[in-house]
Amino acid sequence: MGKTGEKIRRSFQYALLAVATGGLVGILDTIFGRGLLIISDIRNLHYRYLIPFLPVAGLAIAWLYQHFNKESLKGMTLVFETGQQKREEIPLALIPLVMVTTWITHLFGGSAGREGVAVQIGATLSHALGRRCHLPENGRIMLVTGMAAGFGGLFQTPLAAVFFAMEVIVAGYLDYEALLPALIASYTSSFTSHALGLEKFVVTLTGTLDLSEKKNVFGILILGIAFGLTGRLFSFCLQKMKKKLGEKIKSPFWRIGLGAVPLAVFLLLLHSGRYSGLGTNLIRESFHGGTVYAYDWILKLVLTIVTLAIGFQGGEVTPLFSIGATLGVVLSGILGLPAMTCAALGYAAVFGSATNTLLAPIMIGLEVFGPAEMLPFVIVCVIAYLMNGDRSIYAAQGRIEKKFHIKKILRNCQSAFKKNSLGYFLYKN
Q1: Using one digit for the tens of pLDDT, what is the confidence trace for 15-36?
Q2: Which domains does the chain have, with CATH numbers?
Q3: Measured between alpha carbons, how far is residue 75 from residues 79, 189, 309, 426 in Å?
Q4: How far apart are CA 140 and CA 20, in angstroms?
Q5: Would you say residue 415 has pLDDT above 60?
Q6: The model's pTM
Q7: How far apart are CA 178 and CA 165, in angstroms?
Q8: Tens of pLDDT along 243-291?
Q9: DSSP label at residue 208
């Protein structure tokens, strides 16, 4: 068989595995996601009785990992190390452990997300399938495929999921060989989870910002800077706090048990559990004209950092969405811009800044909020990306020297302005 025939055969194998991965991950995402919704509803109804037991829940989480599989505690770091070919496999025990411990975190009021769980599930499953099929480069291509399936199935944003998976392992680098299987897996997973009843968050922006007005241009620039610095602050504080606590309190039981006591007190007293869980309540308030306090974003930021740093399980992305949305509403009043538009821009850009990704948050803007404000999304996300200081919530994320990459992006962004074309910008980058 010639090189062309071998390439076609491999592509067909990856496509079949991508379909299987997407279907299986979509089912697991649905089980996890629907379970999380039920647990969140229970906590909201009985928060006075559940949040005080957060320290006990933390000790249970630490015991589960210590008893069943200590290595799985590294979570996303295992995924990054595998993608960077620093390790050969991810333990399958990670899947049930991360699902159960995240449910426990949310039931008792921890401020955490869910995407990390979905990405870990997808990466672990796809990588195991690739190894069993003895495919070449499975540690790279299959890992990206699974990550895309996990993110896409949970959030039902398949394009954002693909670019997130491709961008996040090594910042500034896209592995286009993984594009097709990642697309197949992401769309399959998204379709599966939707068919099984998992709902997608969608807000349609009907108005458009007139960028011919100087006030609006100035406002957009300020928003980009503010969102970029917020994502940077979150990443910096999370990594610093994890490191410091890990050095000073070696025992995971003492770290999570002691840290959860003041955390539970604050979560209970600050607006009756308003900042516990995913933060979807804050997102809902931001987009539906509800009450948004000027300090909502900073309290959610601090409490999420503490929750994750002391050892509770869950992701960072949904809290980042809520931080960005609430900050956007606050800044909209200062800048005189539409609150819903600013909330949407913050929703995407803070996520992009904190994860050190560029195309994924732009795709989030497209898939969640529609095409009406795509040019502002591009501008704000680019600025936020440039402002993040090359920091990421993922300590194990690889890096490529950013300075030349940035110059290229800025040149192409300028050309995109002249051509008024998002497609031109994405094509050139």
Answers
A1: 899 999 999 999 999 999 999 9
A2: 3-195 (1.10.3080.10), 214-428 (1.10.3080.10)
A3: 7, 21, 13, 31
A4: 17
A5: no
A6: 0.90
A7: 9
A8: 999 999 999 999 999 999 999 999 999 999 999 999 999 999 999 989 9
A9: -
